[in-house]
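Pilot study result, target chain (265 residues):
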Amino acid sequence: MTFNLLRNQIVNVDGQNRDCNFWTSVKSFNPILNFDKNTLIKVLQFSYEMTFGDVGIHRDHRSGGTHRRKNGELFINTFQGKLAEFGLYLYLKNNGLNTQEPDLSKWGKGKWDTIDLIVNGKKLNVKSTKSKGNLLLLETKDWDDNGRYIPNVSVDGGEYDYFILTRIDPDGESIIKYNRLYYSNTVDGGIDTLMKYLLNKKWEFDIVGYVTTDDLIKVINENIIIKQGSYLNRYTKMDAENYYIQSGDMRNIVELGTLLKKTVK
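Predicted structure:
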């Protein structure tokens, strides 16, 4: 399998030269389902308790990154990530593949669920991005040369079988920023305020595609990275160094469904 590189170019933006990277292999957003209100409420309650509610704690920075996230940013990142897990769960269920619902346990600092979904013994790593996103990103400091997730090696071996990239619309980050909560550690009105801002939207879900562990190992061996401090397109600055795979290079999700159905439990 061939992975196309981003086009790298020095671009003058607002009088400053930036090291910019542009997509070269993309897929359009193609929603396959809408989230029902009950699912949205469950995920919103979980995300609130893990951040603003202080029931659980998500780490405030990325591996190798320097940016410290406020509760508002942590909340919407958690909301989108968990919603993506439910989207894949619903897709698999609708296609005759049984798996447990995504974990909604509230973990404390330094402890979080190790696997997103398990289907017929295969471990799935679910990543999410915005509807206009086109990159599967994995922080380089999190992965060893064998494609294992380093923080979990001592727990369960850190091994995944497949990596799935999903997209969600609308852009929750823009909604939270518009309502001035992104850089806040508190929210007036608590969870009711967040429900008012988020539950009146139509939330759509798209599966971009998937890659295998062997694909990831190839990316690692070929050092396909986007550097810390460089820019994706012109304006998104990379807080940490990441391995990447473009959406247009990913395998078709229908193929993965067929593979999982053939897997012996």
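One observation from the pilot: DSSP finds seven helices and twelve strands in the chain. A full batch analysis is planned for the follow-on phase.
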